[in-house]
Amino acid sequence: MTMAEKLTLPATTLPPDTDRRRLGFRLTLPAQVLVLLISLFPLLMQLYISLTDWSPLSGLMWPRAWQMWNGLANYADLLSDNRLWAALGRTAFVMAVCVPVEFLLGLALATLFMDEFPGKRVLYSILIMPMMVVPAVAGYMFFMLFQSGGPVNDILSWFTASPVTIAWLSSPTLALTAVMIADIWQWTPLMFLILLAGLMGVPEDQMKAATLLGAGPWQRFRTIVLPRMRTIIVIALAIRSIECFKIFDTLFIMTGGGPGVATETISVYIYKITTQDLIWGYVAAIALAILLVLSVACIWAMKRLAR
Amino acid sequence: MSAIRLDQLGKRFGAFTALHAMDLSIADGEFMALLGPSGCGKSTTMNMIAGMERPSAGRILFGDRDMAGVAMGRRGVGFVFQNYAIFTHMTVRENLSYGLRMTGRPGSEVASRTAATAELLQLTPLLDRPSAGLSVNILQRVAIGRSAVMEPAIFLLDEPLSNVDAAFRAVMRTELKQLQRQFRQTMIYVTHDQLEAMTMADRIAVMDHGVLQQVGTPLDVYNNPANVFVARFIGAPGMNLLPGVPLDTGAGMAVDLGPLGRSPVLPPAQAAALRGAGGPVIYGFRPEQVALAAGGIALQTEVIERIGARTIVHFSGPVKVGPVKVGPVKVGPVKVDGVKAVFDNDLALSVGEVAHLAPHGGDVRLFDAATGRALGGH
After folding, report:
1. Distance between CA atoms of B94 and B343, rounded to whole angstroms?
2. From B83, B89, B102, residue closest to A219, measured CB to CB
3. Nearest neighbour of A214 by CB, restricted to B52, B73, B81
């Protein structure tokens, strides 16, 4: 057999490119249908309901919601829904505080963990633990910690040497603080883990080279570590921002969104109007609007930061 | 003040001693190669000079200044890493100017010195190229330039050619040597490749098992190895070493090589050294310094290796030498896979034939079989 014959063999035995693609499509078809059913169907259903005034109390099955068609009225309503905007504002505030604090704490811890020190393994395990606590359990934990006769006040009493009886969870301002502390406690470890992985990926030689060229610790961080960790930082911030936007379980158990609406974030608000007001047409409109805004914001931020 | 002195320098990692009390003086402007097999302590020595590792014992002096406690960023040392450690997220210009920028030099100075260094290293047309994806020889120049722009008094190079393919190494060696002439700095060059050390260095420090074995000019180390390790390590192939005992033949001194018979009679200098030996010796000769002659050591030809310019002949062995103690450590046992000899290509010898090897008497080197040290002064 000559070399030329050998080389032409694969082209004749394998199907042409388009055939192969069609085969691939057919093979993945069941999975694709499943994905469509799981993700696309609810989305379309939601879109449909959001254009109606449908409610489970209306006595109609949802496919017949067109009988209560009201066009874009739900979308118009949400623009003037003050409670919605307040909840959005609160959620944004929680994000604006928690994500940077978690990032900075996580980065500081990760930097510390790049060095060797006694007890590192044990501390590492302890540090990771909050992440493994079920959020509902964490919520109950912090609910108890922040009682007016609870451990947090006790500790503060020792420090100030006078009895402290702050009603954390029933004060409009402190309740949100308590919720944010719980969130930071639970999710700093995730930041820590992601950033530690990033730091370990920074080539040691380059750090040494920078040191030998006279760069100090902060200069090394700014010129070598940060540029090399950019992608990982973007991912960490994106994950936490999205998660933080959806903050619900811990918060709901600690405050139930209260006192009043003082800790009512967007998820809590949607939960409440879903289960209490039962205006599902409107709920669907809010959810879709948020999905749209969040997706656009995420894509924009990723594109900007990843550059 | 860029002379370097190592004074009883030592390094231990837990129970493992990477470097035993090492004394070494490197003159201002000298090109010193630290040569040895991997794990011999040469890189450890280099890292301690750069300040990346802290000595367990002894001192490092730059001029008269003790470097203990001087941070690595303040030692004024240029370091070229084995993989060059180029900042791949920066352009060539950003790499070159990095040190100047980090030490807060004014912008005009940064620009002019970067430009001058780039010119010297012929990097000017590449200044604004991203440094990722440049070829190895350019990366090497960037790595050297990045250190050189800081005008360090001392340059340390850690096996800079080890990840370059063999054909290109020759080019890079010449380039490096020229650069050293231009910069006129004290250079320490770590390598396991004797060819690099022999061709570039003013002096070579041969190391093994964390012990400095010998310091000398390339020719000195080649001609007069201080012990059996250096004799085996330097030269390609290394020196042939055969165990034996001194023998007075009546016609002059020779070495009784046991089953291999007896060596040719030695010239006066070697004979004197042999008389001074207390007991068994090791008879050494370079594969290049051998002739085929009657009365030589009779050996059977096993392999004939034609490498182009020369022909290397392997004779039957193997012979074991040692173990011997060199300083505080044991060396060997050195397994000699038979005796080798290098001849011209017109060699009239075929496999299986018995050859009579007569080493050039003046080039024979003798070692004490107990200590491995060279006998007599050559």
Report:
1. 53
2. B102
3. B73
CATH code of domain A82-264: 1.10.3720.10
Instruction: Verify that B151 and B207 share a domain, yes or no.
Output: yes
Model ipTM over 0.90: no
Chain A residues whose beta carbon lies within 8 Å of the beta carbon of residue B72 = 208, 211-212
Q: Is residue B374 part of a domain?
A: no
Question: Which among A205, A215, A223 has the least Cβ separation from residue B85?
Answer: A205
| Domain co-membership, B211 together with B263 | no
Q: Which of A211, A212, A224 to mutate to test the interface with B (most CBs of B within 10 A)?
A: A212
**CATH code of the domain containing B332:** 2.40.50.140
* Virtual torsion, Cα B266, B270, B273, B278, nearest 10 deg: -40
What does the pLDDT look like over B274-295, one tens digit per residue?
888 777 888 889 998 888 887 7
pLDDT tens per residue across span A77-107: 888 888 888 999 999 999 999 999 999 999 9
Task: State mean pLDDT over B333-356.
Answer: 76
* Interchain proximity A213–B52, CB inside 8 Å: no
Q: How many domains does chain B have?
A: 2
Cα dihedral A151, A156, A158, A163 sign: negative
Please name the amino acid found at residue B140: Q
Q: Which residues of A touch B (CB under 8 A)?
A: 203, 205-206, 208-216, 219, 223-224, 227-228
- Judge contact between A54 and A68, C-beta under 8 A: yes
- Tokens 């006769």 -> residue: A149
Q: What is the CATH number of the domain that holds B98?
A: 3.40.50.300
Residue B308: which domain range? 237-368
